[in-house]
Design goal:
- The protein has two domains: 110 residues, NAD(P)-binding Rossmann-like Domain (Rossmann fold); 177 residues, NAD(P)-binding Rossmann-like Domain (Rossmann fold, 3-Layer(aba) Sandwich), CATH 3.40.50.
- 35% of the residues lie in helices and 15% in strands.
- The protein is built from eleven helices and twelve strands.
- The strands form two sheets. Strands 8-7-6-9-10-11-12 form a seven-stranded parallel beta sheet.
- The two termini are 22 Å apart.
Length: 313
């Protein structure tokens, strides 16, 4: 398969990059200063694209690659891949579900604990010597809090199961009521937020879920409520979130994702009730290797005329 051209859209994982280089003819798209000219020059030899949640395969890129057969995404989310264009052109699409579910769900619980128990602020308190001057102010308990899950897919369900271990009542909103769960279902996100102490965003990013957490939802969650976003930045109206936190209309937030990554609103930096992470939900050594192996496995399956391991299109 060394002659098969694979376009990697951006740097995402050293192991994946090295393995692609060994097994295929790898093109590193981000290193090209004149990308249009580069695509025109190599269009006939590029048969696969490897992207992620930051840089996938939009309609322009797909149209520029007439020999493209497969887009293998190093992520679960596919909002950076034009799925309709892929279907139209018969291009296969795969992603990396399941292998990152545990890490992202673990991180959701970590963010809940970090925000409510003020773990990051406690750490700073000790480091700057403030403990010698008096005890840290009392934070808020996590166990028993009402946890609402926005999107009860693999990750949302895993986060819910973990929160149950803390005696948290679980409710959820999704496109339809789930048959195999006893969790409380609400017909709208506003209703879910009104009945939650913590709202966890864990749905897929689509046109319908963009800004699904808006001012009305944030106000329903209220000044004692906490928003946890482990989904995608554009799920949340970031300007409304910032103003709600600054004005005290929202109790706190734990954010792993942002609307225009890596840009983060500077108004959040000085807030003690906010925990900010650099999109590391699946960011462990073990999981990133498993994701890379799944990307490689899908590519090799396709070019060996075998069924994809995790087909989307």
């Amino acid at each position: 398969m060394e002659a098969i051209g694979v376009l990697m859209t951006c740097p995402m994982n050293n192991y994946l990059e090295q393995e692609l280089d060994k097994r295929f003819k790898l093109f590193r798209y981000w290193t090209q200063p004149k990308q249009r000219e580069f695509l025109a020059q190599h269009a006939e030899s590029i048969r696969a694209v490897v992207g992620n949640a930051t840089a996938g395969a939009d309609a322009e890129l797909i149209d520029a690659l007439p020999k493209l057969e497969i887009v293998s995404s190093f992520s679960v989310g596919l909002d950076k891949v034009d799925l309709n264009k892929c279907k139209e052109k018969g291009i296969r699409v795969s992603n990396t579900p399941d292998v990152l579910t545990d890490d992202v769900a673990d991180l959701a619980i970590g963010l809940m604990l970090a925000v409510l128990r003020r773990i990051c602020e406690c750490d700073k308190y000790v480091r700057r010597g403030a403990w010698k001057l008096g005890d840290f102010k009392l934070p808020t308990k996590f166990s028993g809090k009402r946890v609402g899950i926005l999107g009860l897919g693999r990750i949302g369900l895993a986060a819910a199961e973990r929160a149950e271990a803390f005696d948290c009542p679980i409710s959820y909103y999704s496109r339809s009521k789930k048959a195999n769960t006893n969790y409380t279902y609400y017909n709208s996100v506003v209703e879910l937020a009104s009945n939650s102490d913590i709202l966890v965003v864990a749905c897929a990013l689509t046109p319908e879920t963009t800004y699904i957490v808006n001012r009305e939802v944030i106000d329903a969650l209220g000044p004692k409520g906490v928003l946890i976003n482990i989904g995608r930045g554009p799920h949340v109206d970031e300007a409304e979130l910032v103003s709600a936190l600054v004005e005290g209309r929202l109790g706190g937030a734990g954010l792993d994702v942002f609307e225009k990554e890596p840009e983060v609103p500077e108004q959040l930096f000085g807030l003690e009730n906010v925990v900010l992470l650099p999109h590391v939900g699946s960011g462990t050594v073990e999981t990133r290797k498993a994701m890379a192996d799944l990307v490689l496995g899908n590519l090799e399956a396709h070019f060996s005329s075998k069924p994809l391991l995790t087909p989307v299109v």
